[in-house]
Design a protein that fits this description.
Shape: globular
Radius of gyration: 22 Å
Order of helices and strands: EHHHEHHHHEHHHHHH
Strand order of the largest sheet: 2-1-3
Number of strands: 3
Helix content: over 70%
Length: about 325
């Protein structure tokens, strides 16, 4: 066979369908999507600015919150602009390698977010169970090491994905039945034996969700034991009140994951757009609500935010 007749095993571009079955509603669906993205960017950028500008907030809890805000900005920005291009301009084409990059960022930063939420649970455990050793345990160097470990774990787990997908021949067409390049949606287009990809994807998801959530729950069991041992009811409320924002962030991140996972296994009869909307909710909801949760429930953040906007009005 001549070199001119040899074609690439993968298409030059994929076509993202958006939300199959709801194409006629794309323009209306874009309104809450765009609003959510705007709120997420505004909220997380404000959080980062406030934490960076105030030396009093350069404490472990707020440094972890800054990591969470930065991750949420990247997580939203890796998918939402392309989604809006699909909804508004019907720009469905995405280059094959751009698709792999989007997938890598999407899954990597989701893993990083889970790791940061676990680190924040550890922060609350030390603050409540070992308050006298808080500053000696959670040093700046340890926080940097935790951040680097979160990045290293995500890169280690996700770097194989693009290479695993690049080796396939895609004979089922270029149409991805999704708003973005999700791993399993791309795998469905591949020919040949995809069992390893299926097992790898499920194994990574289970390891991250189950292990991280297990250690988060374990941290809160120890925290609850410590809180119940406090003498006064006021002290108990105050101690547990410092955890409310983190519990809200955990629920915002893990609840959509669990619901989506259950729906995929229990409600396979559901229309494809139901699963896609749930997947989008998982991507959109945490980045939007995290700044609101911490802005409302954390006194220092609330005061600094109000001070920032009041100064602008004056």
């Amino acid at each position: 066979m001549s070199a001119s007749n040899i074609t690439s095993s993968h298409p030059a571009v994929f076509l993202l369908m958006g939300i199959p079955g709801l194409e006629h509603l794309h323009i209306w669906i874009s309104i809450p999507f765009c609003s959510t993205y705007t709120l997420a960017m505004l909220g997380n950028c404000t959080l980062l600015f406030i934490i960076q500008a105030n030396a009093a907030l350069h404490e472990p809890m707020y440094l972890f919150l800054a990591m969470l805000a930065a991750i949420d900005i990247v997580l939203s920005s890796s998918t939402l602009p392309k989604m809006l291009a699909i909804f508004w301009f019907r720009d469905r084409e995405i280059d094959f390698y751009a698709c792999l990059v989007q997938m890598f960022f999407l899954h990597s930063f989701s893993i990083m977010e889970s790791a940061v939420l676990l680190a924040m649970a550890f922060d609350r455990y030390v603050a409540i169970c070992k308050p006298l050793h808080y500053t000696t345990i959670l040093t700046r160097s340890l926080i940097i090491k935790i951040g680097m470990a979160a990045v290293a774990r995500a890169l280690t787990l996700m770097t194989p994905l693009p290479f695993l997908l690049k080796r396939f021949h895609y004979c089922r067409g270029p149409m991805i039945a999704h708003c973005y390049c999700e791993h399993m949606a791309v795998v469905k287009l591949a020919c040949g034996d995809t069992r390893f990809n299926n097992i790898y994807g499920i194994a990574v998801a289970m390891i991250i969700v189950v292990l991280d959530l297990f250690f988060v729950i374990l941290s809160y069991i120890f925290i609850l034991q410590a809180v119940l041992q406090l003498a006064s009811q006021e002290a108990r409320y105050k101690a547990f009140g410092t955890c409310v924002s983190h519990i809200g962030a955990i629920l915002a991140f893990y609840t959509p994951v669990v619901i989506s996972s259950v729906m995929h296994r229990v409600a396979r009869w559901a229309a494809p757009h139901v699963h896609i909307l749930l997947a989008n909710f998982y991507l959109l909801f945490p980045p939007m609500v995290n700044p609101i949760i911490y802005g409302v429930k954390t006194k220092q953040i609330r005061e600094q935010t109000l001070g920032l906007f009041l100064r602008k009005e004056v």
